[in-house]
Write a structure and sequence with these properties.
The complex is a heterodimer of chains A (551) and B (246). Chain A is an all-alpha fold and 551 residues long. Chain A has 23 helices and no strands. About 1% of the residues of chain A have low confidence. Classes of the chains: A mainly alpha (551), B alpha/beta (246).
């Protein structure tokens, strides 16, 4: 028991340090704390707002209990979807296994401690989800001590089955031949699927009410979600037990408890006994190197700038943490969103986009408005790219190595800028092409959109890199900390939002002045070019700091 | 070849001088050992020599080129094996060597010839196609060593180069260091392994608390300190209170 508690403490401190992003530094602790509180308030606030609005709709329909069922279902679903990667990485991809392997402790103890750490984390998440909803429900429909008691029990019970399922899938995956060799690919593919799934779900949920009033859209969203909940509950017994338990069926509560306990036991039986050797095998199987025929290998000499840029791009593409957290979404989402938006307009409106444009007046002014709108939408999503805003931070301990090379700081900074711009352009290049194909008569406006999104990508890259040059975070231990827990990523995004704001507001002002469309386009381009110039100057000044960074 | 002129380094967030008024000259063809206890200032000195850190005071010259005023020319003359071999994990060994070749402007033919020679010498040919992330500590150290020789530098700087190497690789490294010196090149390395320094070096310097405690040939130091071995000299000079007595 002492060993279990010590291991659990170790696991929890690992989870907490990941969440708090504190490292060892005291500096910035207050601002980070404030930021966390603000984020928590925002998330909890949006949830409570949704719950209040959902009850507004469900009470007149005489079915407010659907909200409670939705909470139980959402808790189970989110634990499974978001928990899978966490279970996989914290239980099998973790480096501390090598340190735990030589301790005089049993495999099952380590496995149970690790699984328990994950449970406690998920219990906290499900409490954040279920408890406020239950309180809102009781505020509207009267206090019910038994309901509160059931809700608290379900906060603990609902994550167990999904996490056990994640543990079973993860454990089974590790036994698949070749898994360890391709583990990073598995992680990346799963994240892409998750990203696409979440994006498609939120797009269609939001779009369902896009053409209606606010109340109507909310009603459609709530009824859509409640029918989805009903459907899942009817097909997935544990979700049904949870929902029934929430509604006061103690037999279902007991059943959920019994099945959860049994699945926990099954996990330990199946994967606990050989856990350490299974998890540690990940470190052994990587030494399978591809042979290189040195005599026939083709070697090309490149410039230092090209070599540095290529290295940056390779690192970005080959590091799942960077790929997933810094680049994949902003590269895929603008294209996905453009296609979904245009296709849904085409299928929804009679006569397609042409009819919508005609309905709006179909003058050149309308086309320019469409171009500005699409530019803003695309750049908003592409602007979340953090390749440039973490470029120096990602060097970490290897900053010294970079400094030892016989190249100027300017060349190094330029390579980082080029790599950042490359990934930004990947995100903004396809949407104008799609618009050209799907919007009739878009022709030259596609070029204009390309020019604007390109200029905005330039501004975002320059600004992000300048921010990171000013205050790089080099003292990270794992790659996630370098990119995900890096304030420069958020600052870079905020700055590009400001730039977009200036671009959008100036467009509104210029339209109000009733200027010629071509003049308006020229002025908007000039505004972006000027901002681009300002950011270039900032970057030039900031790049002088590179040589003075002491890692 | 290498010259430190009254070099001092004080880190921004520290009140202690990591290196304090270091003056040292290493000539061409010398195999120079830089020894000292943990935290004495060895790595800081090497970082200033390789242009990673800027001295707070004083100047560092590599073959007559001031590292502060013309760092690119000075760095071109250096080959550097960093401590701990923190390399670019996501590249393959081959990509890393090619990357270094591009950094130092090495022609494709020279690069290929040196790769073949050193990969064979350090027995890394079979692993060079794999990602560095999968390398053991010793393999990383070997790759860093090969990479530092890819441009045939005039000055070879190694920070704790024997760390993690197996006896054979360690032997090959020592032999290569001797070969480089025989060609008139300068080898400057830091180490904790005093036996290696004693057997290998033409001259050594001992740094303690950031200051140069002793410098000279092994024989001269033994005579001056009336000691029988470098280990004895090391223990004598790094004993607490010794410098204060001096």
């Amino acid at each position: 028991m002492t060993q279990f508690l010590a291991l659990l403490r170790l696991e929890l401190s690992g989870i907490l340090s990941e969440l708090s992003n504190s490292g060892n530094k005291q500096k910035g602790k207050v601002s980070r704390g404030l930021m966390t509180v603000v984020l928590l308030v925002l998330v909890a606030g949006s949830l409570v707002w949704f719950e209040v609005r959902a009850l507004d709709i469900l009470i007149p329909l005489k079915s407010p209990e659907i909200l409670l069922k939705m909470l139980v279902f959402a808790s189970m679903l989110m634990t499974f979807v978001y928990g899978f990667l966490q279970v996989l990485s914290r239980m099998y991809f973790t480096k501390d296994i090598a340190l735990l392997a030589y301790l005089p402790t049993r495999d099952t103890t380590v496995y149970t401690a690790k699984l328990s750490g994950q449970f406690l984390y998920e219990i906290a998440v499900s409490t954040l989800l279920i408890l406020p909803g239950t309180v809102v429900y009781m505020v509207r429909l009267g206090f019910d001590a038994a309901l509160l008691c059931r809700a608290l029990m379900l906060c603990v019970l609902t994550p167990i089955l999904p996490i056990c399922l994640c543990a079973v899938i993860s454990g089974a995956l590790t036994k698949v031949p070749g898994f360890w060799k391709h583990r990073e690919t598995v992680t990346t593919v799963f994240t892409v699927i998750l990203l696409l799934g979440v994006f498609t779900f939120s797009f269609f949920t939001g779009q369902a009410g896009g053409r209606s009033s606010d109340d109507e859209s909310m009603r459609m969203m709530v009824t859509g979600l409640s029918s989805l909940t009903d459907e899942v509950i009817a097909r997935v017994p544990p979700a049904a037990w949870g929902a029934e338990a929430m509604m006061g069926n103690w037999l279902s509560m007991l059943l959920l408890f019994a099945v959860s306990a049994a699945s926990l036991g099954l996990c330990m039986l199946l994967f606990g006994r050989n856990y350490i050797s299974e998890a540690a095998s990940g470190n052994e199987s990587t030494a399978d190197f591809k042979k290189v025929d040195l005599a026939n290998v083709r070697i090309e000499k490149k410039s230092a700038l090209m070599a540095l840029t290529k290295r940056e791009i390779r690192e970005m593409l080959r590091t799942p943490a960077y790929l997933i957290n810094g680049m994949l979404g902003p590269v895929i989402m603008p294209t996905l969103m453009t296609v979904m938006m245009l296709v849904s307009i085409m299928s929804a409106a009679e006569g397609g986009i042409q009819a919508v444009l005609e309905g709006l007046g179909n003058g050149k002014g309308i086309m320019l408005i469409v171009t500005i709108f699409m530019t803003c939408m695309v750049s908003l999503m592409a602007g979340m790219n953090s390749v440039a805003s973490t470029a120096v931070s990602r060097e970490g301990k290897r900053h010294g190595l970079m400094m030892s090379y016989p190249v100027s700081a300017r060349t190094i900074v330029r390579s980082k800028f080029l790599a950042g711009l490359f990934f930004s352009m990947l995100g903004v290049l396809p949407p104008p092409m799609i618009c050209l194909i799907l919007i009739p008569g878009f022709g030259s406006y596609a070029l204009l959109m390309l020019l604007w999104t390109g200029l905005l990508a330039y501004c975002g890259t320059a600004a992000g890199l300048a921010i990171d040059l000013g205050r790089p975070k080099l003292d990270w231990i794992n790659e996630n900390q370098a990119i995900k827990q890096n304030m420069n990523q958020i600052l870079g995004m905020l700055l590009i939002f400001v730039v977009l704001g200036i671009f959008g507001v100036s467009a509104v002002v210029l339209f109000g002045m009733d200027l010629d469309v071509r003049l308006l386009a020229v002025i908007e381009t000039a505004i972006l070019a000027l901002m681009g110039l300002a950011f270039t100057l900032w970057l030039k000044k900031a790049s002088k700091a590179y040589g003075r960074i002491e890692a | 070849m290498i010259s430190f002129e009254n070099v001092t380094k004080q880190y921004l967030k520290s009140s202690v001088k990591a290196v304090d008024g270091l003056t040292l000259k290493v000539e061409a063809g010398e195999l120079f050992g830089f020894i000292g206890p943990n935290g004495a200032g060895k790595t800081t000195t090497i970082k200033m020599l390789t242009g990673i850190l800027r001295p707070t005071e004083g100047r560092v010259f590599v073959d007559g080129t001031d590292m502060a005023s013309d760092p690119i020319t000075a760095k071109r003359k250096l080959g550097f094996v960093p401590d701990g071999a923190d390399l670019f994990d996501r590249l393959t060994g081959m990509e890393y060597l090619n990357f270094l070749g591009d950094m130092y402007g090495v022609s494709a033919s020279d690069r290929k010839a040196r790769m073949e020679k050193y990969l064979d010498l350090f027995e890394l040919t079979d692993a060079v196609g794999g990602r560095i992330a999968g390398y053991s500590k010793g393999m990383r150290q070997k790759l860093a060593t090969i990479g530092s020789l890819i441009h045939d530098p005039d000055v070879w700087v190694l920070d704790e180069p024997m760390m993690g190497l197996d006896p054979k690789a360690s032997y090959e490294l020592k032999e290569e260091m001797k070969r480089q010196c025989a060609q008139g090149k300068t080898v400057f390395f830091s180490t904790h392994v005093l036996d290696v320094a004693e057997k290998l070096c033409t001259r050594v310097a001992l740094i303690h608390h950031g200051r140069l405690a002793a410098e000279g040939t092994i024989e001269a130091l033994k005579n001056a300190e009336h000691a029988e071995s470098l280990e004895q000299i090391f223990l004598e000079l790094t004993e607490d209170g010794h410098q204060e007595e001096e």
